[in-house]
Design brief:
three-stranded antiparallel β-sheet, 447 residues, alpha/beta, eight-stranded mixed β-sheet
């Protein structure tokens, strides 16, 4: 039975952390999708407990690094030391968790989601289940960076069949991170990300799609509806989940647990790598150190944009994706005209910490891929082989995309590195549109 909403959640519901905004296509009359932002509680049981080491060690070390004018080499040294400590804490906590065999630790956290819904859905009767997409981001990337891709998708012939889109944001990222400020002193776990996606799908996704406005705090569905979704999936929806990197791992794991909820997966260079792959640990450690070493504030959004454009990493992004990162991934905590300083919503220390969990969860999900339900179509979208070919290299990616034979396809996006959706939104939108057509064709064949 679905648990009742705890009284403290009802009493302490926060408001939206960022002002409402119009979507990227707000002045395009040919795109009839409206945007709203919503809040739900996260899955209440987290894998790891609160730890004091973040507040006592890593965050103070980060502040000292930021204020001591260290050069690049000096920042990298601090990042290397701190990521090493994080890995040690995780090993210690994992050993404790396994010895105690605890099911989890209760924690009250919040999630933000963007909803894009087609207008005037109720004007004509619908003959098929409402096509719904859910997007899950890579580590450190706010939910709005999907918007350039979504804009291209809904302009396509297949994309116009999409009735509703939900873009999920993890507890330590973007607006969700602002809602959970002061409550993230725990080791993040990729298993929790999958649980949070399922928590939304099973408890909060509205039963039917309507163009009507929804409340900021989504209401839970009834116990009967929850139990039906657990057994049979959705009676009035077809769901395609699109996950990039960390988000791809989360979507795959959610589908493994509840395949009845999904019609297809689009996994974009997902964080899924085989056991003992020699490249995985150094790759994740490198990413964690890069996250920790980065700055978290700029004098203005204009300065932030100019510096990010010069970065070899961010400079490779599509300009519209980078704009969404700067506009919506940064915030100004002081409402003063005299101070234009902006800060990352996703703190670099928390982003680095999330990478330290990637080895076990990537390997574990790799072992589950062959058992993903054959009824769920899988599209693998991988980088250019000349640009890395995937998180663990092209040979590893070649093995991954063949792990579950049948009802699957794969593609390498020319010119793209790991950040495929942010670098090549047109190309990834086309692959999602292709997936929609395949799902629609399979549905028609069954009717």
């Amino acid at each position: 039975m679905a648990p009742e909403l705890p009284p403290d959640i009802l009493q302490l519901r926060p408001g939206l952390p960022s002002p409402p905004r119009t979507p990227l296509w707000h002045d395009n009359p040919d795109i009839s999708y409206t945007l709203s932002t919503h809040i739900i509680d996260a899955s209440p049981l987290r894998t790891f407990p609160q730890i004091n080491s973040l507040d006592e060690v890593s965050l103070p070390a980060y502040v000292r690094m930021q204020t001591s004018n260290l050069d690049t080499k000096g920042r990298q040294k601090v990042a290397q030391e701190q990521v090493g400590l994080m890995l040690n804490w995780r090993r210690e906590q994992e050993e404790t968790r396994r010895s105690q065999r605890t099911p989890g630790y209760e924690r009250r956290l919040w999630l933000c989601l963007n909803r894009y819904v087609k207008q005037d859905l109720d004007k004509a009767p619908r003959k098929t289940k409402g096509l719904t997409l859910i997007f899950a981001h890579a580590l450190g990337v706010n939910k709005e960076t999907w918007e350039p891709l979504i804009m291209r998708l809904v302009k396509s012939r297949a994309g116009r069949d999409v009735e509703e889109i939900w873009v999920w944001e993890s507890v330590d990222t973007g607006d969700s991170a602002l809602l959970n400020s002061g409550k993230l002193n725990q080791l993040p776990d990729w298993y929790d990300g999958a649980k949070d996606i399922l928590h939304f799908l099973l408890h909060y996704m509205p039963s039917r799609i309507t163009s009507d406005r929804l409340p900021v705090h989504l209401p839970r569905v009834s116990v009967a509806e929850f139990e039906e979704r657990e057994r049979l999936g959705f009676s009035e929806r077809q769901i395609i989940a699109i996950g990039h990197s960390y988000g791809g791992n989360n979507c795959g794991r959610a589908c493994y647990s509840y395949p009845q909820c999904f019609s297809a997966l689009v996994l974009v260079d997902p964080g899924i790598v085989k056991l003992n792959d020699p490249t995985l640990r150094p790759t994740l450690r490198y990413m964690a150190q890069g996250s920790y070493a980065r700055r978290d504030s700029w004098k203005s959004r204009e300065e932030a944009l100019a510096l990010h454009e010069k970065s070899s990493f961010f400079g490779a992004w599509h300009p519209e994706a980078l704009r969404m990162f700067i506009e919506c991934g940064l915030y100004s905590p002081i409402s003063s005209d005299s101070d234009s300083t902006v800060y990352l919503k996703t703190h670099p220390v928390l982003e680095a910490l999330a990478y330290t969990n990637g080895v076990e969860t990537s390997e574990d999900m790799y072992a589950k891929v062959p058992s993903l339900d054959q009824k769920v179509y899988i599209k693998w979208v991988m980088p250019d082989r000349k640009k890395g070919g995937g998180l663990a290299g092209p040979e590893s990616s070649d093995r991954l995309v063949k792990l579950r034979p049948g009802n699957t396809s794969n593609v390498n996006i020319a010119g793209a590195s790991h950040m495929i959706p942010l670098e090549k939104p047109d190309e990834v939108a086309r692959e999602i549109a292709d997936t929609i057509e395949i799902v629609a064709s399979a549905t028609s064949a069954k009717m």
